[in-house]
Amino acid sequence: MTVLQRYFASEIIRAVMFVLAAFLGLFAFFGLMDELESVGQGGYKLQHAFLYILLGLPNYVYELMPIAALIGTIFALAQFASHSEFTIMRASSMSTFTAGMMLAKIGIVFAIITIVFGELVAPVTTQLASKLKFSLQGAAMSQQFRSGLWTKDIIKTNGVTGAVVGSRFVNVAEVKPNGQLNDVRLYEFDKDFRLAALITAKKADYQKANIWQLSDVTETRFSGAAAAGSTQDITAAISTVSAPTKPLVSDITPKILSVLFADPDRMSTYDLALYTRHLTDNKQDSERYEIAFWKKLIYPFVVFVMMALALPFAYLHFRSGGVSLKIFTGIMIGVSFKLINDLFSHLGLLNTWPPLITAILPSAVFMTAAIMALRRMDRR
């Protein structure tokens, strides 16, 4: 690593970390103001609100890292320009391409931080924060739905493997923060979509390997005659059995159920891929989660786009107010990218655009703008 590369890295990393810390403090403050309304509900106290906000900070690190990289890089480069350091560097044969490559190497550090927080830290802490709040307030996660939670599953001959022999609709009145299901109803249909069984259970606890343990079970089975609506000996075609417990093999796991209450943008790539496959297998619409999946894959590379947008600011010279004006412009660019990126997610969903195109288009537009600005500055 050259002396110039180390100098660039130290100044830019210091500036980006400072900007990120300032953003985290600001967002934490506003988040705490919102949480104060929930303090006092059940056992949810002020210290729990502080812990809830603290657990939410890793997700802010993930979301704000590209914008912090943009503003921090602009600040460092603006300082170089105001002190004529960048002019001396250019006079010493440093080309635009060389400066861009140095920024790209520094961007790798920020991209790795984005990946670590977005894939490993934020999904875990966000889920812990939700469980903490629900458990202390004494609320069930599915109480926001009037008829409880509904989801769909497929029935296979050998549990989770083998040929598909039917489908199952699952209705749960309450999903506890620990993953326990209360007041469960299972509607099983054969391949011709005829009702084959109705199973009710007081509760369901997940064991392992896609197995649920149902408690206080009542199972009503319908034979082919009952399902077809035959009136001949209808009572013989329906059988009801009660049991204290019953195992249930299902593709639905607590991880998949937790997805139903999570924001797709706050899930890991693995969870998004898992749930997208589950929706596809059950012939349900998965476009929203596919868009979120591709956005999650592309988002770390947005750091490089933001730093490329920051480079042209090193070529701009102002007599007064230069640094503050550049930083303000950088903030506007960062906010614009965030708004456009979110807007394209909704537009892609409404217009059924390909998920990959929907996710990559905002970054491609801003990267094109950065390249055009650099070429224009290079000609001057």
What does this structure look like?
The structure is a single chain. The relative contact order is 0.11. Helix 2 (46-82) packs across helix 10 (322-350). The chain has 380 residues and is an alpha+beta fold. The protein is built from eleven helices and six strands. A six-stranded antiparallel sheet has the order 1-2-3-4-5-6. The protein is elongated. It folds into two domains: 3-138 and 286-379, no CATH class; 161-209 and 211-249, no CATH class. It comes from Undibacterium arcticum. The chain crosses the membrane at residues 12-33, 60-81, 102-122, 297-316, 323-340, 352-374. Keywords: Cell membrane, Membrane, Transmembrane, Transmembrane helix. InterPro entries: LptG, LptG/LptF_permease. Its main location: membrane.
Blueprint (SSEs and pairs):
Elements lengths: L2 H33 L10 H37 L2 H7 L4 H42 L11 E10 L2 E15 L5 E10 L4 E12 L4 E12 L1 H4 L10 E12 L4 H6 L9 H13 L5 H12 L3 H9 L11 H29 L4 H25 L1
Antiparallel strand pairs: 1-2, 2-3, 3-4, 4-5, 5-6
Helix pairs in contact: 1-2, 2-4, 2-9, 2-10, 4-9, 7-8, 8-11, 9-11, 10-11
* pLDDT < 50 stretches: none
DSSP, total strands: 6
Cα radius of gyration in angstroms? 27 Å
What is the N-to-C order of secondary-structure elements (H for helix, E for strand)? HHHHEEEEEHEHHHHHH
What's the rounded overall pLDDT mean?
85
Helical amount among residues, as a percent range?
55-70%
- Briefly note the structural class of the backbone: alpha+beta
Q: Count of helical segments?
A: 11
Largest pleated sheet: 6 strands, antiparallel
Q: How many domains make up the 3D coordinates?
A: 2
In terms of DSSP E residues, the strand content is 15-25%
As laid out across the biggest beta sheet, the strand order is 1-2-3-4-5-6
Shape: elongated
| Terminal Cα span | 30 Å
Main location: membrane
Membrane topology: Multi-pass membrane protein
Subcellular location: Cell membrane
InterPro entries: LptG, LptG/LptF_permease
